Input
Amino acid sequence: MSILDDLVDAVANRVLGRSDTALSSSRLPNLTPKGFKMTHGGFASWVEPPSEFSATSAQTAGMWPFCVGTSSALIGAPLGRNIYNGSVVCCDPMSLFIRGIISAPSAMIIALNGRGKSSLIVRMCLFLADLGYIPMVLSDLKPDYVGMVQHLGGSVIQVGPGFGSVNPLDSGPLRDRFHELPPELQKELAAEIQTRRVSTVRGLLELTRGRPLDVDSQEPVVLSMAVREAAAVAEGEGREPVIQDLIDVIQSAPKSMQALTLSDNEDAFRLETKSLVKGLIGLLEDGPFGNTFSRETTVEMPVDKAVCFDVSAVDISDSMMRAAIQTVCWAYGQSAASAAKTLGEAGLAPERHHFMVMDEMWQILEASELLVHQINAVTRLNRTKGLGQILCTHSMKDLTLSTDKLSKIARGFMERSSVKIFGGLARNEMPLLEEVMPLSEREKQLLVEWSAEGATDPRTGKTLPPPGRGRFMIKLGENVAGEPLSLNLTATEKRIHDTNSAWAAAMAGAAR
Output
Protein backbone atom coordinates (compact mmCIF):
# COMPACT_ATOMS: atom_id res chain seq x y z
CA MET A 1 0.00 0.00 0.00
CA SER A 2 1.30 3.51 -0.81
CA ILE A 3 1.57 6.41 1.65
CA LEU A 4 -1.40 8.03 -0.11
CA ASP A 5 -3.51 4.89 0.41
CA ASP A 6 -2.62 4.78 4.10
CA LEU A 7 -3.53 8.47 4.44
CA VAL A 8 -6.90 7.95 2.74
CA ASP A 9 -7.61 4.95 5.03
CA ALA A 10 -6.75 7.00 8.11
CA VAL A 11 -9.01 9.89 7.07
CA ALA A 12 -11.89 7.53 6.30
CA ASN A 13 -11.38 5.79 9.62
CA ARG A 14 -11.52 9.09 11.51
CA VAL A 15 -14.60 10.36 9.64
CA LEU A 16 -16.50 7.09 10.11
CA GLY A 17 -15.42 6.74 13.72
CA ARG A 18 -13.79 3.33 13.13
CA SER A 19 -10.62 2.16 14.80
CA ASP A 20 -7.56 0.91 12.94
CA THR A 21 -8.18 -2.53 14.42
CA ALA A 22 -11.74 -2.66 13.06
CA LEU A 23 -10.50 -1.47 9.67
CA SER A 24 -7.79 -4.14 9.54
CA SER A 25 -10.18 -6.93 10.51
CA SER A 26 -12.62 -5.93 7.77
CA ARG A 27 -10.11 -6.57 5.03
CA LEU A 28 -10.59 -9.69 2.95
CA PRO A 29 -8.21 -12.61 3.51
CA ASN A 30 -5.54 -13.35 0.89
CA LEU A 31 -5.81 -9.83 -0.56
CA THR A 32 -2.43 -8.40 -1.52
CA PRO A 33 -1.40 -5.32 -3.52
CA LYS A 34 -1.13 -7.69 -6.52
CA GLY A 35 -4.58 -9.23 -6.19
CA PHE A 36 -6.11 -12.13 -4.26
CA LYS A 37 -3.44 -14.79 -3.74
CA MET A 38 -5.72 -17.74 -4.43
CA THR A 39 -6.93 -19.84 -7.35
CA HIS A 40 -8.65 -17.65 -9.96
CA GLY A 41 -8.12 -14.66 -7.71
CA GLY A 42 -6.37 -12.63 -10.38
CA PHE A 43 -3.05 -12.63 -8.52
CA ALA A 44 -0.14 -11.37 -10.64
CA SER A 45 3.20 -12.67 -9.42
CA TRP A 46 5.01 -10.06 -11.50
CA VAL A 47 3.70 -6.73 -12.75
CA GLU A 48 5.45 -4.94 -15.60
CA PRO A 49 6.05 -1.35 -14.43
CA PRO A 50 4.12 1.29 -16.38
CA SER A 51 5.81 4.11 -18.26
CA GLU A 52 6.33 7.26 -16.18
CA PHE A 53 5.96 10.82 -17.48
CA SER A 54 6.40 14.27 -15.99
CA ALA A 55 3.81 16.93 -16.75
CA THR A 56 2.09 19.96 -15.28
CA SER A 57 -1.14 19.68 -13.29
CA ALA A 58 -3.00 21.28 -16.23
CA GLN A 59 -1.79 18.58 -18.60
CA THR A 60 -2.61 15.71 -16.26
CA ALA A 61 -5.97 17.06 -15.07
CA GLY A 62 -8.53 14.27 -14.85
CA MET A 63 -5.88 11.54 -14.95
CA TRP A 64 -4.37 11.76 -11.45
CA PRO A 65 -4.54 10.67 -8.71
CA PHE A 66 -7.38 8.24 -9.50
CA CYS A 67 -7.90 5.89 -12.44
CA VAL A 68 -10.96 3.99 -13.66
CA GLY A 69 -10.82 0.29 -14.51
CA THR A 70 -12.44 -0.99 -17.66
CA SER A 71 -13.04 -4.20 -19.62
CA SER A 72 -12.78 -5.17 -23.27
CA ALA A 73 -15.40 -4.07 -25.77
CA LEU A 74 -18.02 -6.77 -26.28
CA ILE A 75 -17.63 -6.97 -30.06
CA GLY A 76 -17.46 -10.37 -31.74
CA ALA A 77 -17.74 -13.98 -30.66
CA PRO A 78 -17.60 -14.53 -26.87
CA LEU A 79 -14.42 -16.59 -26.70
CA GLY A 80 -13.81 -16.85 -22.96
CA ARG A 81 -12.78 -14.87 -19.91
CA ASN A 82 -9.73 -12.75 -19.27
CA ILE A 83 -7.43 -14.86 -17.08
CA TYR A 84 -6.52 -11.83 -14.92
CA ASN A 85 -9.79 -10.02 -14.25
CA GLY A 86 -12.48 -12.49 -15.35
CA SER A 87 -14.09 -10.11 -17.85
CA VAL A 88 -15.63 -11.58 -21.00
CA VAL A 89 -13.33 -11.50 -24.04
CA CYS A 90 -15.02 -11.19 -27.45
CA CYS A 91 -13.31 -11.33 -30.82
CA ASP A 92 -13.72 -12.46 -34.42
CA PRO A 93 -12.26 -10.86 -37.54
CA MET A 94 -15.55 -10.22 -39.34
CA SER A 95 -17.28 -8.41 -36.46
CA LEU A 96 -14.22 -6.28 -35.74
CA PHE A 97 -13.87 -5.39 -39.43
CA ILE A 98 -17.51 -4.41 -39.82
CA ARG A 99 -17.21 -2.12 -36.77
CA GLY A 100 -14.12 -0.48 -38.30
CA ILE A 101 -11.71 -1.65 -35.60
CA ILE A 102 -9.43 -3.59 -37.96
CA SER A 103 -8.58 -3.00 -41.62
CA ALA A 104 -9.27 -6.49 -43.01
CA PRO A 105 -11.52 -9.41 -41.95
CA SER A 106 -8.59 -11.78 -41.43
CA ALA A 107 -7.10 -13.65 -38.50
CA MET A 108 -4.30 -16.12 -37.87
CA ILE A 109 -3.84 -18.60 -35.04
CA ILE A 110 -0.45 -20.03 -34.12
CA ALA A 111 -0.12 -22.53 -31.26
CA LEU A 112 1.26 -25.98 -30.54
CA ASN A 113 -0.96 -28.96 -31.25
CA GLY A 114 -3.51 -30.00 -28.64
CA ARG A 115 -3.97 -26.48 -27.27
CA GLY A 116 -7.48 -25.94 -28.62
CA LYS A 117 -6.96 -24.01 -31.87
CA SER A 118 -9.78 -25.74 -33.72
CA SER A 119 -12.06 -25.35 -30.68
CA LEU A 120 -11.54 -21.60 -30.82
CA ILE A 121 -12.31 -21.59 -34.55
CA VAL A 122 -15.48 -23.62 -33.99
CA ARG A 123 -16.63 -21.06 -31.40
CA MET A 124 -16.14 -18.25 -33.93
CA CYS A 125 -17.91 -20.20 -36.68
CA LEU A 126 -20.96 -20.94 -34.52
CA PHE A 127 -21.26 -17.29 -33.52
CA LEU A 128 -20.84 -15.99 -37.08
CA ALA A 129 -23.31 -18.55 -38.42
CA ASP A 130 -25.85 -17.23 -35.92
CA LEU A 131 -25.32 -13.76 -37.40
CA GLY A 132 -26.00 -15.06 -40.90
CA TYR A 133 -22.45 -15.53 -42.15
CA ILE A 134 -21.54 -18.81 -43.86
CA PRO A 135 -18.59 -20.90 -42.58
CA MET A 136 -16.47 -22.66 -45.22
CA VAL A 137 -13.97 -25.30 -44.09
CA LEU A 138 -12.14 -26.02 -47.32
CA SER A 139 -9.91 -28.92 -46.26
CA ASP A 140 -10.75 -30.72 -43.04
CA LEU A 141 -7.86 -33.15 -42.64
CA LYS A 142 -8.61 -34.88 -39.32
CA PRO A 143 -11.68 -34.13 -39.41
CA ASP A 144 -12.23 -31.36 -36.87
CA TYR A 145 -15.20 -29.51 -38.31
CA VAL A 146 -17.56 -32.11 -39.80
CA GLY A 147 -19.70 -32.23 -36.63
CA MET A 148 -19.99 -28.45 -36.53
CA VAL A 149 -21.07 -28.17 -40.17
CA GLN A 150 -23.62 -30.97 -39.74
CA HIS A 151 -24.92 -29.22 -36.60
CA LEU A 152 -25.44 -26.08 -38.70
CA GLY A 153 -27.32 -28.04 -41.37
CA GLY A 154 -24.49 -27.57 -43.86
CA SER A 155 -23.00 -29.78 -46.55
CA VAL A 156 -20.10 -32.19 -45.93
CA ILE A 157 -18.27 -33.16 -49.14
CA GLN A 158 -15.79 -36.03 -49.06
CA VAL A 159 -12.79 -35.58 -51.35
CA GLY A 160 -10.13 -38.14 -52.25
CA PRO A 161 -9.39 -41.10 -54.54
CA GLY A 162 -12.48 -43.27 -54.75
CA PHE A 163 -14.58 -40.58 -53.08
CA GLY A 164 -15.40 -37.14 -54.45
CA SER A 165 -13.55 -35.20 -57.13
CA VAL A 166 -12.88 -31.48 -57.42
CA ASN A 167 -12.10 -30.25 -60.91
CA PRO A 168 -9.25 -27.69 -60.77
CA LEU A 169 -10.72 -26.10 -63.93
CA ASP A 170 -14.23 -25.75 -62.48
CA SER A 171 -15.61 -22.27 -63.04
CA GLY A 172 -17.55 -22.40 -59.78
CA PRO A 173 -21.19 -22.47 -58.70
CA LEU A 174 -22.13 -19.47 -60.88
CA ARG A 175 -21.79 -21.09 -64.31
CA ASP A 176 -25.53 -21.79 -64.71
CA ARG A 177 -26.38 -18.13 -64.05
CA PHE A 178 -23.49 -16.53 -65.91
CA HIS A 179 -25.78 -15.37 -68.77
CA GLU A 180 -27.98 -13.46 -66.28
CA LEU A 181 -25.15 -11.09 -65.33
CA PRO A 182 -24.66 -7.65 -66.88
CA PRO A 183 -21.93 -7.54 -69.58
CA GLU A 184 -19.41 -5.71 -67.37
CA LEU A 185 -19.77 -8.30 -64.59
CA GLN A 186 -19.50 -11.13 -67.12
CA LYS A 187 -16.20 -9.72 -68.35
CA GLU A 188 -14.86 -9.25 -64.81
CA LEU A 189 -15.88 -12.74 -63.72
CA ALA A 190 -14.48 -14.40 -66.86
CA ALA A 191 -11.05 -12.85 -66.19
CA GLU A 192 -11.17 -14.00 -62.56
CA ILE A 193 -12.10 -17.57 -63.55
CA GLN A 194 -9.26 -17.70 -66.09
CA THR A 195 -6.72 -16.52 -63.50
CA ARG A 196 -7.94 -18.98 -60.88
CA ARG A 197 -7.86 -21.92 -63.29
CA VAL A 198 -4.30 -21.19 -64.40
CA SER A 199 -3.08 -20.63 -60.84
CA THR A 200 -4.63 -23.87 -59.55
CA VAL A 201 -3.31 -26.09 -62.33
CA ARG A 202 0.10 -24.45 -62.06
CA GLY A 203 0.17 -25.19 -58.35
CA LEU A 204 -0.61 -28.86 -58.97
CA LEU A 205 2.08 -29.12 -61.64
CA GLU A 206 4.72 -27.51 -59.44
CA LEU A 207 3.73 -29.78 -56.56
CA THR A 208 4.09 -32.98 -58.59
CA ARG A 209 7.22 -31.92 -60.48
CA GLY A 210 8.92 -30.34 -57.48
CA ARG A 211 10.03 -27.28 -59.45
CA PRO A 212 8.51 -24.15 -61.01
CA LEU A 213 7.27 -24.05 -64.58
CA ASP A 214 10.04 -23.35 -67.08
CA VAL A 215 9.85 -19.72 -68.09
CA ASP A 216 12.49 -20.14 -70.83
CA SER A 217 10.25 -22.72 -72.55
CA GLN A 218 7.25 -20.40 -72.09
CA GLU A 219 5.43 -23.08 -70.07
CA PRO A 220 3.39 -20.54 -68.03
CA VAL A 221 2.22 -18.77 -71.19
CA VAL A 222 1.41 -22.01 -73.02
CA LEU A 223 -0.55 -23.24 -70.01
CA SER A 224 -2.55 -20.02 -69.84
CA MET A 225 -3.43 -20.18 -73.52
CA ALA A 226 -4.29 -23.88 -73.26
CA VAL A 227 -6.69 -23.16 -70.39
CA ARG A 228 -8.43 -20.46 -72.43
CA GLU A 229 -8.71 -22.66 -75.54
CA ALA A 230 -9.88 -25.72 -73.60
CA ALA A 231 -12.52 -23.65 -71.79
CA ALA A 232 -13.88 -22.36 -75.09
CA VAL A 233 -14.17 -25.90 -76.49
CA ALA A 234 -15.84 -27.25 -73.33
CA GLU A 235 -18.30 -24.37 -73.09
CA GLY A 236 -19.31 -25.02 -76.68
CA GLU A 237 -20.19 -28.55 -75.63
CA GLY A 238 -22.09 -27.39 -72.52
CA ARG A 239 -19.64 -28.74 -69.94
CA GLU A 240 -16.67 -27.75 -67.78
CA PRO A 241 -13.11 -28.22 -69.12
CA VAL A 242 -10.96 -30.97 -67.54
CA ILE A 243 -7.24 -31.76 -67.53
CA GLN A 244 -7.54 -34.00 -70.62
CA ASP A 245 -8.80 -31.00 -72.58
CA LEU A 246 -5.57 -29.13 -71.79
CA ILE A 247 -3.50 -32.03 -73.02
CA ASP A 248 -5.53 -32.26 -76.24
CA VAL A 249 -5.16 -28.54 -76.97
CA ILE A 250 -1.38 -28.53 -76.45
CA GLN A 251 -0.82 -31.70 -78.45
CA SER A 252 -2.81 -30.29 -81.36
CA ALA A 253 0.02 -27.73 -81.69
CA PRO A 254 -1.99 -24.70 -82.87
CA LYS A 255 -0.11 -22.04 -84.80
CA SER A 256 -0.73 -19.44 -82.08
CA MET A 257 1.10 -21.59 -79.50
CA GLN A 258 3.92 -22.36 -81.91
CA ALA A 259 4.46 -18.62 -82.28
CA LEU A 260 4.68 -18.20 -78.51
CA THR A 261 7.54 -20.71 -78.24
CA LEU A 262 9.24 -19.58 -81.49
CA SER A 263 8.85 -23.10 -82.84
CA ASP A 264 9.25 -23.57 -86.60
CA ASN A 265 6.88 -26.52 -86.87
CA GLU A 266 4.61 -28.86 -84.93
CA ASP A 267 7.38 -31.32 -84.08
CA ALA A 268 9.57 -28.57 -82.61
CA PHE A 269 6.61 -27.27 -80.57
CA ARG A 270 5.78 -30.72 -79.21
CA LEU A 271 9.40 -31.19 -78.19
CA GLU A 272 9.38 -27.80 -76.45
CA THR A 273 6.18 -28.59 -74.52
CA LYS A 274 6.91 -32.26 -73.80
CA SER A 275 7.71 -31.68 -70.12
CA LEU A 276 4.53 -29.64 -69.61
CA VAL A 277 2.36 -32.31 -71.22
CA LYS A 278 4.00 -35.04 -69.15
CA GLY A 279 3.16 -33.08 -66.00
CA LEU A 280 -0.47 -32.75 -67.06
CA ILE A 281 -0.65 -36.48 -67.84
CA GLY A 282 0.48 -37.07 -64.25
CA LEU A 283 -2.73 -35.38 -63.08
CA LEU A 284 -4.93 -37.91 -64.87
CA GLU A 285 -6.52 -40.98 -63.29
CA ASP A 286 -3.40 -43.14 -63.58
CA GLY A 287 -1.26 -40.54 -61.80
CA PRO A 288 -0.58 -40.20 -58.07
CA PHE A 289 -3.89 -38.40 -57.44
CA GLY A 290 -6.15 -40.95 -59.13
CA ASN A 291 -9.41 -39.46 -60.32
CA THR A 292 -9.47 -36.71 -57.69
CA PHE A 293 -8.67 -33.95 -60.20
CA SER A 294 -9.13 -35.63 -63.60
CA ARG A 295 -12.91 -35.44 -63.92
CA GLU A 296 -15.66 -32.91 -63.31
CA THR A 297 -16.58 -31.95 -59.75
CA THR A 298 -18.81 -34.66 -58.30
CA VAL A 299 -20.66 -32.55 -55.69
CA GLU A 300 -21.19 -28.88 -56.35
CA MET A 301 -20.45 -26.60 -53.44
CA PRO A 302 -23.48 -24.64 -52.13
CA VAL A 303 -23.16 -20.89 -51.69
CA ASP A 304 -26.00 -20.43 -49.20
CA LYS A 305 -25.06 -22.77 -46.35
CA ALA A 306 -22.06 -24.01 -44.36
CA VAL A 307 -19.76 -26.44 -46.15
CA CYS A 308 -16.88 -28.70 -45.19
CA PHE A 309 -14.54 -30.57 -47.53
CA ASP A 310 -13.72 -33.74 -45.60
CA VAL A 311 -10.23 -34.97 -46.56
CA SER A 312 -9.81 -37.34 -43.61
CA ALA A 313 -10.05 -40.43 -45.85
CA VAL A 314 -6.67 -39.57 -47.39
CA ASP A 315 -3.86 -41.28 -45.49
CA ILE A 316 -1.97 -38.89 -43.24
CA SER A 317 1.35 -40.07 -44.71
CA ASP A 318 0.33 -38.98 -48.21
CA SER A 319 1.33 -35.35 -47.71
CA MET A 320 1.43 -34.61 -51.44
CA MET A 321 -2.17 -35.73 -51.94
CA ARG A 322 -3.37 -33.73 -48.94
CA ALA A 323 -1.52 -30.61 -50.08
CA ALA A 324 -2.93 -30.97 -53.60
CA ILE A 325 -6.50 -31.24 -52.28
CA GLN A 326 -5.94 -28.21 -50.04
CA THR A 327 -4.71 -26.21 -53.04
CA VAL A 328 -7.69 -27.09 -55.23
CA CYS A 329 -10.35 -26.82 -52.52
CA TRP A 330 -9.13 -23.42 -51.31
CA ALA A 331 -9.34 -22.10 -54.87
CA TYR A 332 -12.75 -23.71 -55.41
CA GLY A 333 -14.06 -22.25 -52.16
CA GLN A 334 -12.98 -18.80 -53.25
CA SER A 335 -14.97 -19.28 -56.46
CA ALA A 336 -18.10 -19.84 -54.35
CA ALA A 337 -17.46 -16.63 -52.41
CA SER A 338 -16.94 -14.75 -55.69
CA ALA A 339 -20.19 -16.19 -57.02
CA ALA A 340 -22.10 -14.99 -53.97
CA LYS A 341 -20.56 -11.51 -54.24
CA THR A 342 -21.25 -11.24 -57.97
CA LEU A 343 -24.87 -12.36 -57.66
CA GLY A 344 -25.37 -9.84 -54.86
CA GLU A 345 -23.89 -7.01 -56.93
CA ALA A 346 -26.18 -7.89 -59.84
CA GLY A 347 -29.23 -7.95 -57.57
CA LEU A 348 -29.85 -11.61 -58.41
CA ALA A 349 -29.41 -12.87 -54.82
CA PRO A 350 -29.19 -11.44 -51.29
CA GLU A 351 -25.80 -10.25 -50.11
CA ARG A 352 -23.89 -13.15 -48.54
CA HIS A 353 -20.57 -13.26 -46.74
CA HIS A 354 -18.47 -16.37 -46.12
CA PHE A 355 -15.97 -17.13 -43.36
CA MET A 356 -13.18 -19.25 -44.83
CA VAL A 357 -11.26 -21.58 -42.50
CA MET A 358 -7.77 -22.49 -43.76
CA ASP A 359 -6.48 -24.94 -41.15
CA GLU A 360 -3.30 -27.06 -41.05
CA MET A 361 -1.42 -24.66 -43.31
CA TRP A 362 1.86 -26.36 -42.42
CA GLN A 363 0.94 -29.45 -44.43
CA ILE A 364 0.69 -27.65 -47.73
CA LEU A 365 3.97 -25.77 -47.18
CA GLU A 366 5.74 -28.94 -46.05
CA ALA A 367 4.69 -30.77 -49.23
CA SER A 368 5.98 -27.99 -51.50
CA GLU A 369 7.27 -24.56 -50.59
CA LEU A 370 6.29 -23.35 -54.07
CA LEU A 371 2.63 -23.55 -53.04
CA VAL A 372 3.22 -20.48 -50.89
CA HIS A 373 2.44 -18.50 -54.06
CA GLN A 374 -0.98 -20.17 -54.35
CA ILE A 375 -1.82 -19.45 -50.70
CA ASN A 376 -0.67 -15.87 -51.22
CA ALA A 377 -2.98 -15.47 -54.21
CA VAL A 378 -5.96 -16.97 -52.37
CA THR A 379 -5.58 -14.78 -49.27
CA ARG A 380 -4.70 -11.39 -50.74
CA LEU A 381 -8.07 -10.24 -52.12
CA ASN A 382 -10.54 -11.71 -49.66
CA ARG A 383 -11.62 -8.34 -48.28
CA THR A 384 -12.71 -7.12 -51.71
CA LYS A 385 -14.68 -10.35 -52.23
CA GLY A 386 -16.70 -9.94 -49.04
CA LEU A 387 -14.89 -12.94 -47.58
CA GLY A 388 -13.49 -13.31 -44.07
CA GLN A 389 -10.74 -15.79 -43.32
CA ILE A 390 -8.79 -17.44 -40.54
CA LEU A 391 -5.51 -19.25 -41.07
CA CYS A 392 -4.09 -21.77 -38.63
CA THR A 393 -0.74 -23.47 -38.12
CA HIS A 394 1.47 -24.80 -35.33
CA SER A 395 4.60 -22.70 -35.37
CA MET A 396 6.36 -19.68 -36.82
CA LYS A 397 8.87 -22.20 -38.15
CA ASP A 398 6.14 -23.34 -40.56
CA LEU A 399 6.47 -19.90 -42.17
CA THR A 400 10.28 -20.06 -42.36
CA LEU A 401 11.08 -21.54 -45.77
CA SER A 402 14.29 -22.38 -47.62
CA THR A 403 14.86 -18.92 -49.11
CA ASP A 404 14.41 -15.40 -47.77
CA LYS A 405 12.05 -14.59 -50.64
CA LEU A 406 9.69 -17.48 -49.87
CA SER A 407 9.89 -16.83 -46.13
CA LYS A 408 8.96 -13.19 -46.70
CA ILE A 409 5.86 -14.25 -48.63
CA ALA A 410 4.87 -16.77 -45.95
CA ARG A 411 5.33 -14.32 -43.09
CA GLY A 412 3.19 -11.90 -45.04
CA PHE A 413 0.24 -14.14 -44.11
CA MET A 414 0.84 -13.19 -40.49
CA GLU A 415 1.51 -9.53 -41.22
CA ARG A 416 -1.71 -9.15 -43.23
CA SER A 417 -3.81 -10.86 -40.55
CA SER A 418 -5.38 -8.02 -38.60
CA VAL A 419 -6.18 -10.33 -35.66
CA LYS A 420 -3.31 -12.41 -34.34
CA ILE A 421 -4.05 -15.16 -31.83
CA PHE A 422 -1.25 -17.01 -30.05
CA GLY A 423 -1.39 -20.09 -27.86
CA GLY A 424 1.38 -22.05 -26.19
CA LEU A 425 4.67 -21.71 -28.09
CA ALA A 426 8.23 -22.85 -27.42
CA ARG A 427 10.79 -20.34 -26.16
CA ASN A 428 12.80 -20.51 -29.37
CA GLU A 429 9.72 -19.28 -31.25
CA MET A 430 9.89 -15.85 -29.63
CA PRO A 431 12.62 -14.31 -31.86
CA LEU A 432 10.73 -15.44 -34.98
CA LEU A 433 7.46 -14.15 -33.58
CA GLU A 434 8.89 -10.74 -32.75
CA GLU A 435 9.97 -10.25 -36.36
CA VAL A 436 6.30 -9.68 -37.24
CA MET A 437 4.72 -8.78 -33.88
CA PRO A 438 6.65 -7.21 -30.95
CA LEU A 439 5.66 -8.64 -27.57
CA SER A 440 6.34 -7.56 -24.01
CA GLU A 441 8.47 -9.76 -21.80
CA ARG A 442 5.41 -10.79 -19.79
CA GLU A 443 3.50 -11.73 -22.95
CA LYS A 444 6.37 -13.89 -24.19
CA GLN A 445 6.73 -15.54 -20.79
CA LEU A 446 3.02 -16.35 -20.74
CA LEU A 447 3.15 -18.04 -24.16
CA VAL A 448 6.16 -20.10 -23.07
CA GLU A 449 4.39 -21.14 -19.84
CA TRP A 450 1.42 -22.31 -21.92
CA SER A 451 3.70 -24.57 -23.99
CA ALA A 452 4.31 -26.95 -21.06
CA GLU A 453 2.80 -30.42 -21.11
CA GLY A 454 0.40 -31.80 -18.52
CA ALA A 455 1.41 -33.55 -15.30
CA THR A 456 0.10 -35.63 -12.41
CA ASP A 457 -0.59 -34.22 -8.96
CA PRO A 458 1.80 -36.16 -6.67
CA ARG A 459 -0.58 -35.86 -3.70
CA THR A 460 -3.86 -36.88 -5.28
CA GLY A 461 -2.72 -38.72 -8.42
CA LYS A 462 -5.13 -36.57 -10.42
CA THR A 463 -4.15 -35.82 -14.00
CA LEU A 464 -3.48 -32.15 -14.70
CA PRO A 465 -4.03 -30.98 -18.30
CA PRO A 466 -1.44 -28.85 -20.13
CA PRO A 467 -1.54 -25.34 -18.63
CA GLY A 468 -2.01 -23.83 -22.07
CA ARG A 469 -5.01 -25.90 -23.13
CA GLY A 470 -7.79 -23.51 -24.08
CA ARG A 471 -5.66 -20.45 -23.32
CA PHE A 472 -4.89 -17.87 -25.97
CA MET A 473 -3.63 -14.32 -26.32
CA ILE A 474 -5.28 -11.91 -28.78
CA LYS A 475 -3.18 -9.16 -30.34
CA LEU A 476 -4.74 -6.45 -32.50
CA GLY A 477 -1.62 -4.39 -33.07
CA GLU A 478 1.92 -3.61 -31.95
CA ASN A 479 0.83 -0.90 -29.52
CA VAL A 480 -2.08 -2.83 -28.02
CA ALA A 481 -1.49 -5.11 -25.05
CA GLY A 482 -2.29 -8.75 -25.65
CA GLU A 483 -5.51 -9.98 -24.07
CA PRO A 484 -5.09 -13.44 -22.48
CA LEU A 485 -8.20 -15.57 -22.23
CA SER A 486 -9.34 -18.97 -21.07
CA LEU A 487 -11.76 -20.88 -23.30
CA ASN A 488 -14.27 -23.25 -21.70
CA LEU A 489 -16.32 -25.44 -24.05
CA THR A 490 -20.06 -25.83 -23.74
CA ALA A 491 -21.75 -29.24 -23.74
CA THR A 492 -22.86 -28.74 -27.35
CA GLU A 493 -19.35 -27.82 -28.48
CA LYS A 494 -17.93 -30.91 -26.79
CA ARG A 495 -20.49 -33.05 -28.59
CA ILE A 496 -20.00 -31.67 -32.09
CA HIS A 497 -16.26 -31.11 -31.83
CA ASP A 498 -14.31 -33.97 -30.27
CA THR A 499 -10.76 -34.00 -31.65
CA ASN A 500 -9.82 -37.00 -29.48
CA SER A 501 -12.62 -39.31 -30.59
CA ALA A 502 -10.07 -41.89 -31.78
CA TRP A 503 -8.86 -42.16 -28.15
CA ALA A 504 -12.27 -42.13 -26.45
CA ALA A 505 -12.16 -45.71 -25.09
CA ALA A 506 -8.55 -45.46 -23.90
CA MET A 507 -9.20 -42.14 -22.15
CA ALA A 508 -12.33 -43.49 -20.46
CA GLY A 509 -10.36 -46.46 -19.14
CA ALA A 510 -7.61 -44.23 -17.82
CA ALA A 511 -10.16 -42.05 -16.03
CA ARG A 512 -11.63 -45.08 -14.26
